[in-house]
Design goal:
The chain has one domain (3-79). It is 74% helix and 13% strand. The protein has helices at 3-34, 36-39, 49-80; strands at residues 43-44, 47-48, 82-85, 88-91. The strands form 2 sheets. The protein has a two-stranded antiparallel ribbon. α1 (3-34) runs antiparallel to α3 (49-80).
Amino acid sequence: MDDRQRQEYWRKNLTLMSVLLVIWALVSYGAGILFVDALNKVSFLGFPLGFWFAQQGSIIVFVILIGVYVWRMDKLDAEYGVEEYEGEVHHS
């Protein structure tokens, strides 16, 4: 991989991380703290939605975001020929 490809790979990685971190912040901080009063007017599984996001929802969303990151990085690694197999890194 040449320098231009490394920079493009890193830029795409940073873009992905930024998007996922914004989603995480909106869900954990926004839904659990800032918008809790509006969300609490809605019930989810018998609990106010704002309370649910603060207690469970943000954790579930965080785990989903980790899965999305792994999936997208596997695709990005394959696109740039940087793939991992059983702890080894193979460069194409």
